[in-house]
């Protein structure tokens, strides 16, 4: 089976850790860690940090820092189907950061918490060389939370999108191309994953994943973890118009919006064939189906494109490597424009 680079690297550095006998998920098997407290009582938790995005200049606006500090954890909870208990924060401020900036940051934190209906429980604050903001979310469920495991051949890949797909990867491409904010305004990148939607759909789903690492790469992760391949169908209507415009103006294939490592923090669901007709139509789109054959193809216009997921999965986690991968994928996909 093909390897997931992040999982391989994690195993190397983690070694053998002291684990809870009540934890039900394995490493990389879910977006949240899951602990079974009783027969019908599950605790879920996830933790995410925002640091490198600020240091390199991908996220430049304070409002983005605060919004994504909250939503990066909310998106994990949304993929689990659990309901939130609350969120805690660690804010490590760059030395000499003014109290006025900190106050504005926490005002934006409140807006994000209210929007997601996840209360702030507390946290910790300090100083460091650069800003690092960390959120940890707690949730609960009376039924087993969703994981990334459970997909079978014939199951459908369904995205909860709100027609906002593509802004995350387009923002990363803007950064790689060293373009001004006007090329794609950062203020439109405001993911809003819905844990309520996943709860409502929970009886119809067999697995799920948060697309923070990119839509295509997350579909590939699901396929590898479940030893499957897939056939996808391009869906133009799920995308934010500014993301499509960004690609069109630069003669970049819009398929690149599915291949970025920076995602849109949406929920990607696995739906068994028997349940697909029961799904609501609004805000959900079928992207494809899993298959036993280990191939990963996209039907785009009149082309059947073999997506280069092996190259994406093996890409180094640094800006230069991402830039080379971007150039390579653009050249490859532009053959199908």
Automatic annotation (TrEMBL):
Keywords recorded for this protein, A-Z: Thiamine biosynthesis
Record-annotated PurM-like N-terminal domain positions: 30-127
Keyword Nucleotide-binding: no
Biological process, per Gene Ontology: thiamine biosynthetic process
Domain of life the protein comes from: Bacteria
Molecular-function annotations in GO: thiamine-phosphate kinase activity
InterPro entries linked to this entry: PurM-like_C_sf, PurM-like_N, PurM-like_N_sf, ThiL-like
Alphabetical list of SUPFAM superfamilies matching this protein: PurM C-terminal domain-like, PurM N-terminal domain-like
Record keyword Hydrolase present: no
Record-given protein name: PurM-like N-terminal domain-containing protein
């Amino acid at each position: 089976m093909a390897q997931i680079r992040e999982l391989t690297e994690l195993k190397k550095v983690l070694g053998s850790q002291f684990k809870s006998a009540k934890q039900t998920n394995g490493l990389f098997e879910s977006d949240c860690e899951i602990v079974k407290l009783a027969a019908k009582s599950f605790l879920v938790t996830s933790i995410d940090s925002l640091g490198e995005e600020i240091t390199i200049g991908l996220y430049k606006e304070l409002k983005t820092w605060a919004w994504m500090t909250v939503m990066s954890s909310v998106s994990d909870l949304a993929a689990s189907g659990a309901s939130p208990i609350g969120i805690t924060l660690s804010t490590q401020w760059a030395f000499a950061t003014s109290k006025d900036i900190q106050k504005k940051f926490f005002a934006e934190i409140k807006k994000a918490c209210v929007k997601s209906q996840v209360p702030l429980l507390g946290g910790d604050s300090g100083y460091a060389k650069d800003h690092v903001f960390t959120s940890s979310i707690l949730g609960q469920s009376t039924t087993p939370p969703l994981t990334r495991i459970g997909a079978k051949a014939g199951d459908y890949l369904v995205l909860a999108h709100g027609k906002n797909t593509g802004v995350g990867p387009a923002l990363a491409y803007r950064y790689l191309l060293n373009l001004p904010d006007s090329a794609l305004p950062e203020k439109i990148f405001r993911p809003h994953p819905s844990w309520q939607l996943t709860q409502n759909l929970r009886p119809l789903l067999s697995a799920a994943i948060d697309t923070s690492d990119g839509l295509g790469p997350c579909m590939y992760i699901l396929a590898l973890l479940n030893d499957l391949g897939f056939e996808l169908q391009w869906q133009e209507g799920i995308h934010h118009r500014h993301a499509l415009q960004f690609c069109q103006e630069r003669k970049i294939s819009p398929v690149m919006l599915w291949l970025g490592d920076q995602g849109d923090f949406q929920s990607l669901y696995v739906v068994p064939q028997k349940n697909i007709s029961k799904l609501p139509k609004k805000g959900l789109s079928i992207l494809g189906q899993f298959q036993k054959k280990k191939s990963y193809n996209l039907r785009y216009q009149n082309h059947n494109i073999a997506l280069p997921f092996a190259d994406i999965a093996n890409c180094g986690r640094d800006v230069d490597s991402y830039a080379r991968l971007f150039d390579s994928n653009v050249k490859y996909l532009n053959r199908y424009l």
